[in-house]
Amino acid sequence: MAGRDTMPTTTKNPLLAGEKLPQGAKTPTLSGGASTQNPLDHRMHNPVIDHRVHTPMADHSVRPSHELDHVSTKPLSLRSGMTARGHPMSGERGFFSSDESALNKQIQATHAPDMEDMNVRPILIIIEDILRLAQPSGDAHTTTTPTTATTHAYPLLDKPADKVSHGGAYHDEKSYQANYRDEKPYHQPSYRDEKAYHNNISYLDTEIVKVLAYPINRVSCEIVCKSAGGGESHQVTMDLLKSLTSYTWDAKIVIAFAAFAINYGEFWLVEHLHTKNPLAKNIATLKDLPDTLAVAGGGELRKQFDAVIDLLTEILKVTHCIIEFKELPPLYISTQSPEITAATAHIPSAVYWSIRGLLVCAATLLNLIGGGHEYITSTSASWEILNLAHKLKVILDHLQNQMKICKEIIERKKFEDAYIKFKRLLETAHIDNMRVLTELFRFKEDQRPLYDGSRRTNEQLTVLKMKYVLLLISDLELPPEELHVLHIIHNERSVRHDYDVLWLPIMAPGNVMTAFEEKKFYDLRNSMPWYSADHPSLVNPVAIRYAREELKFTHRPMLVVLDPHGKLSNHDALPMMWIWGAKAFPFTKDWERKLWEESDWNIELLADHIDPRIQEWINGNKVICLYGGDDIVWIRSFTTAARAAARTVGVTLEMLYVGKRNPREKVRQCHEAITRDNLSHIFAPEYYDYVWYFWERLASMWNSKKQIGRTVDDDVIMKGILDLLTYDSSEKGWAVFSRGNVEITMGMGEKVLPVVERYADWAYEVDHPDKFVPVLDKHLSGFHPEHHCHRLILPGQAGYIPETVTCTECGKTMDKYVMYRCCTD
Question: Quick check: 709 pLDDT over 80?
Answer without folding.
Answer: yes
